[in-house]
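A sample follows:
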Amino acid sequence: MAHVSAGPTICCKQKKRFWILLRMILQSTREIAQDYYTEATNTASSTKLSDDKRYALTTISNDLSSMITLDEDEEEATYNVTRAEDNMTITEDFNSNKFLTTTTSVLLDDDAIKDVAYCLRSHKFNEYDRRYETNADTAPRRFFMENPRPPLRSLHWEVRKSCELSFSECVNYLRKKIMYTSLKRVDDTAIVIQEHNWTVNNTLQIQTVDEECKKMRRRDDILADPFEGPLERLQWRSTASYYMCWYTMKEAPELAHLNEKCDNFAYCLDTNLGPNNRDQRADDDQPFSCALYSFCPDPCCPARHLANLQHCWDSPDNPCFEGNPAGQRECAFNRTQNTDFRDIILNRWNVTCRCPKAGFEWNSLYGMCVDVDECATGAHSCDQKLEACVNLEGSFRCACKWGHVWNDQTKACTPSNALSLIKLGRKMEEGDDKKKVSLFGRIARFFSRSNGANAVKNDSRLFLFSVVLFYAAESMK
């Protein structure tokens, strides 16, 4: 009697019931979230619901609307689950127990880079090193001058995991994390003033928005959401700044222009400078200027605010200040020469200063102008066949190679007559050496034949050896 197993049929029916139940749960949850989102959207005009909050609610609604499709054929049941989360498409095949994962193209939201720039700009200009400083009132703010020194002992693992994949993955992850902070870019007083084009006639509205902005800022300082505490936030933001600065140095096209004014400290309204500090380094019309201003310290002009670049050149903090006269202290910072990720972490920047003396160039390693070795770099005009390059301080000179002399008539190096005489002398010496070796060879052969019974008596052998040495010495004179 044949045995028929009903296992696979029961298994497929159980799976079908499970997916139907899961679909009902998700549908109910989605309806609740949709009702909440609809109500929040309707009241957005009356309440101060920011675009980021609406974006978060939309993301929740979209994530809960994960699409579940079920093939009704129980014998070849295949369940496809498409999830928007993490921009991954996951296909689960229960027949083969294989999982196929395909990374789809990641699209950046128009405001994603702006939100990340705002968050990290706040870190750059307002944060202090909480690893060593405990008093926020007296702690120096130096991240606009240099990255944390000493550097972090380890990078934040979540930031590293996402930002090493690609630029878009990095920005999307950072933006998702920033959504959980209290103070966001659209809530900042400076941004609100720009978006609404408020003037002095809107003083009351500006004061109200600024009070709310400062409340959210204090909340972030105390709670440090969504991080475990201020120290993890420092690690997270510093690591994020490393990667975003690195992408800026590598000139990611999305960072060329932020399409927004970035000349603010991302710290609510500055009572001294207003909503825009008019820093010349934050000119979004210049490619990558806003990205540099938001993500990277400035090794040339390590100042929090700079209204005029001439103030930077005349500052002792300018690496090109010492040793250069006024008017020749400009400092150049080339992005393509600062693409090493480790150097960014360790604050090893390559800058270029103008050297007052010709034949000298700036060396970032030593922080001074050093002589250019034209001979090593090949920047000389010496004839490689006849002349040798000699490096001098600030210049070089060409000298005739060995065996050549300078000819005043032809104005070139020519072979010397002494060279042939020297070669002839060497040949004669080589011939004499061969004769000497031949004589001593004959002596050695003579004594090598003296063996056994044919050996000469000791006394006569000694006499004969003395005579041979005497004649050998005479012939060598």
User: Anything to note?
Assistant: Residues 9-103 form one domain. The first strand starts at residue 67 and ends at 70. The first helix runs from residue 7 to 42. Residues 1-10, 44-49, 57-105, 452-457 have pLDDT under 50 and may be disordered.
